[in-house]
Design brief:
By secondary structure, this protein is of the alpha/beta class. It contains 11 helices and 18 strands. The chain folds into 2 domains: about 210 residues, Alanine racemase (TIM Barrel), CATH 3.20.20; about 120 residues, Lyase, Ornithine Decarboxylase, Chain A, domain 1 (Beta Barrel). The protein has an 8-stranded parallel β-sheet with strand order 8-7-6-5-4-3-2-9. Helix 5 links the parallel strand 4 and strand 5. The protein is elongated. Bound molecules: pyridoxal-5'-phosphate.
């Protein structure tokens, strides 16, 4: 047995979740968001499994270059756009669609295209800030840019208007409707395609089911909605993170466990040591009580998370023995439940899986970690 954590990736779950997404937004085209190494699941394999998407969205130019380098020839969208001349120089010949969130970005693209006219027009999506307050143009700036683009002949094609929702995870939040309305008004004024919905938007806000949607977390089987279980949304976890018990100890009452001795055994007890820690991306702030799954039963984490190990309470699982698999999240233990204990979100736990965790796919597909 090779000891150490494994993230089992169920590519069938990815395809199922994509179908759930299609069913929720049947008239929309779909950018599958595979940034951050496909939320920790391995960009190359996920791109292959999500082949039925209309295109892939990534955050950065570097990620788009990586996808082209492994032969992904589907439409690609860079959500943050290009930040420098060097990035533009690398990406402009690769038929990658770029977000433009500032007039500076547009000027950069124009200058580069003048120097190196492309064989086909460069497609750009104008990003509108409708309340996220992060990247994006104010309404008036967007109008001015669109009018500038319309009056000049340029090797640029305005692909559409995009905006990002700030509170879609709360189905009752009033801001989502006004964000959708503002973006829709601009797109309709100029007869342009519109892209709004992230996972939460797609599932909970009909107005966000725009011409193009951009699901991320739901493809990986994570719930995008506050307080709603993924299973209730018919989403299947794509990642199950497991490791093994590497020691089973009988500790006396009063024995301290781990750095800082933050946990003391209240009675003589069986304690298991699991080969996973913050060096693998398991959250260091997971408190005593965070659940793991052994032999189909919950066991509670005890004391502090170390770099390579955690300790768990085996009082309720007397048969547990060295070598037993331990599930940290995934099948049987929703990542949302662990995230809530830790005070974070499913996105962060999935994305933070470290490089030394082996990704094992349930079927052969080209690619892997980029
Ligand atoms: C601009 C943009 N669109 C879409 C997504 C996908 O969001 P989600 O994973 O919530 O579906 C993200 C993710 O952060 C994003 O930044």
């Amino acid at each position: 047995m090779i000891v150490g954590p494994i993230a089992h990736i169920d590519l069938g779950a990815l395809r199922h979740n994509l179908a759930v997404c299609r069913a929720a937004a049947p008239s929309s085209r779909l950018w599958a968001v595979i940034k951050a190494d496909a939320y920790g699941h391995g960009m190359g394999h996920c791109a292959a499994a999500l082949e039925a998407a209309d295109g892939f969205a990534v955050a950065r130019v570097q990620e788009a270059l990586g996808l082209r380098a492994i032969g992904i020839d589907k439409p690609l969208l860079v959500l943050e756009g290009a930040a420098s001349e060097a990035e533009l120089g690398a990406v402009l010949s690769l038929q990658v669609e770029l977000t433009v969130h500032s007039s500076r970005q547009l000027d950069l693209i124009r200058t580069q295209l003048r120097a190196n006219p492309p064989p086909r027009p460069q497609r750009i999506w104008l990003k509108l800030d409708t309340g996220m307050g992060r990247l994006g143009l104010q309404d008036a700036e967007a109008v001015a840019l669109i009018e500038r683009l319309r009056t000049r002949t340029s090797p640029l094609e305005l692909a559409g208007i995009m905006t990002h929702l700030a509170n879609a995870d709360d189905p009752t939040h009033p801001m989502t409707a006004s964000q959708c309305e503002q973006a829709r008004a601009l797109a309709e004024r100029f007869g342009l395609p519109l892209s709004i919905g992230n996972s939460a938007g797609i599932l909970a806000h009909p107005a966000a089911r725009s011409d193009w949607v951009r699901p991320g977390i739901m493809l990986y089987g994570g719930s995008p909605l506050l307080g709603q279980a993924a299973a209730a949304l018919d989403l299947r976890p794509a990642m199950t993170l497991t490791s093994q018990l590497i020691a089973v100890r009988e500790l006396p009452a009063g024995a301290a466990i781990g750095y800082g001795s933050t946990y003391r055994c209240p009675q003589p007890m069986r304690v298991g040591v699991v080969a996973i820690g913050y060096g693998d991306g398991y959250p260091r702030h997971a408190p005593t009580g965070t659940p793991v799954l052994i032999r189909g039963r919950r066991a509670a984490l005890l004391g502090r998370v170390s770099m390579d190990m955690i300790s768990v309470d085996l009082r309720q699982i007397p048969a547990a023995t060295v070598g037993d698999p331990v599930t940290l999240w995934g099948q049987g233990l929703p990542v949302e439940e662990v995230a809530e204990q830790v005070g974070t979100i499913n996105y962060e736990l999935l994305c933070r899986i470290a490089n030394r965790v082996r990704l094992v796919y349930d079927e052969q597909a080209p690619g892997g970690r980029l």
